[in-house]
Design brief:
Largest sheet: 3 strands, antiparallel
Number of helices: 15
Low-confidence stretches: 176-212
Helix content: 40-55%
Radius of gyration: 22 Å
Oligomer: single chain
Distance between the termini: 24 Å
Length: 405
């Protein structure tokens, strides 16, 4: 059993984090959280609050803001006053215990898992900021191209005009509070219960305020306040992750962009567009082939990071099957042992925990990596199976292992 969250599938159409609290010192804080969970095997609101106050140096009032941010990155989920570990925290708990006594290998594992989490949750903001070398003006240009590219494709595949409008509002960047763009409409926060317009309707805004459907010609507004804060936040992530130094891309940063190019996320005009995975698009009844030539899977992102950023060799040798299955079995055992309260009912390890854990172990130990899907397919043809794929509703499934005799 592992906690998952069910967000509105439409929100997946723009990979963007909307929270501002807790963005700084992300690598060190996630490492502290992972070490805490690996050591205790449990999470509590009181324990997390203590981390926020004593280890992160923030006030108690910030606890729920941290929970919101870490939920978007796939680490924790707060329900009432109950805190649940999410898949990425389970992965780092496994890797912390796997690399016990090897802090260097664990530090690299944190950066790998966190990069993967950032790309999945905030990929279009982070990548366009990185591609712009964190220049506010260049970032603005790339982000406008990204938004327009998504609007254009959505207009082709979504026929319902009201749904187009709803999706356009999700894709567009919204900035709340101070720093509104000149002539902004009444969609931002207001001291009144119902928003009031403070400026007159210009010719352009009259054309774009119809709620009957999306309008490709609606001006894309990215405020100065957004451009002032967001590139700085993402630059701090890139610095902590080792992708920039002294204001320039490091070899690792160039390798990350090579990984992204391998995934075909960069468009000819230069912006980065990262559509939801096939399974997420299916929930929206959108054929992946209608929006992009290829839509990466989570496994594709992991292997691109491993091969391009960390120099791992991706092999298809059947000679690696036995050792890889043994690694996956050990990951399953550690997954069961990792939760003090739920270990006894964890009868399989979900693929969204097993796959990142396998890549983290492989990278940390400098081993060759094989495609987990091909391994599962090969194993399914054997008379005696060393592992089985099982159905876990709403996911790609999990792995189950026979009892050792």
């Amino acid at each position: 059993m592992v906690a998952t969250t069910q967000d509105n599938p439409l929100q997946q159409l723009m990979r963007r984090i909307g929270y501002s609290v807790g963005l700084e010192d992300l690598v060190s804080r996630i490492s502290v959280l992972a070490e805490h969970y690996a050591e205790t095997g449990s999470l509590s609101y009181a324990g997390f609050e203590e981390l926020v106050v004593k280890r992160f140096g923030r006030k108690k009032e910030a606890v729920e803001h941290f929970c919101n941010l870490y939920r978007s990155l796939g680490f924790v989920f707060l329900s009432g006053r109950v805190l649940h570990p999410l898949p990425n925290l389970e992965v780092l708990s496994i890797l912390r215990r796997w690399f016990e006594g090897n802090d260097g290998a664990f530090a690299e594992a944190v950066k790998l898992v966190l990069t993967h989490a950032i790309l999945e949750a905030d990929g279009e903001i982070f990548l366009n900021a990185l591609g712009a070398r964190f220049s506010s003006q260049k970032f603005k240009d790339l982000l406008e191209e990204c938004i327009f590219a998504k609007r254009t494709q959505i207009a082709k595949v979504v026929r319902s005009k009201p749904l187009q409008q709803k999706i356009f509002e999700i894709i567009d960047v919204k900035t709340f509070g101070k720093g509104k763009a000149e002539g902004s409409s009444a969609t931002e926060t207001s001291p009144y219960r119902f928003a009031r317009r403070s400026t007159g309707l210009s010719k352009d805004s009259r054309r774009s305020t119809s709620l009957s459907g999306g309008d490709l010609q609606t001006r894309i507004v990215i405020t100065d306040r957004y451009l002032h804060h967001v590139p700085k936040n993402r630059a701090s992530w890139a610095l902590d992750l080792g992708y920039i130094a002294d204001g320039a891309l490091t070899p690792r940063g160039n390798a990350l962009l090579s990984a992204v190019d391998k995934l075909k996320l960069r468009r000819p005009e230069g912006c980065y567009v990262f559509w939801p995975y096939d399974s997420d698009l299916a929930l929206l009844r959108i054929d992946p082939r209608d929006v992009a030539p290829t839509v990466a899977r989570s496994w594709d992102v992991l292997t691109a990071l491993a091969t391009c950023v960390y120099g791992t060799t991706l092999s298809d040798s059947k000679d690696l099957d036995k050792s890889t299955i043994e690694t996956l079995r050990k990951i399953y055992v550690m997954y069961r042992q990792g939760s003090r309260g739920h270990g006894s009912i964890r009868h399989q390890v979900p693929l969204f925990v097993a796959a990142p854990s396998l890549v983290g172990v492989t990278v940390g130990e400098g081993r060759d990596l094989i495609d987990i899907e091909r391994l599962i397919q090969r194993e399914s043809t054997r008379t005696y199976r060393r592992m089985n794929r099982v159905i876990i509703r709403g996911t790609e499934g999990g792995l189950q292992f026979p009892e050792e005799t």
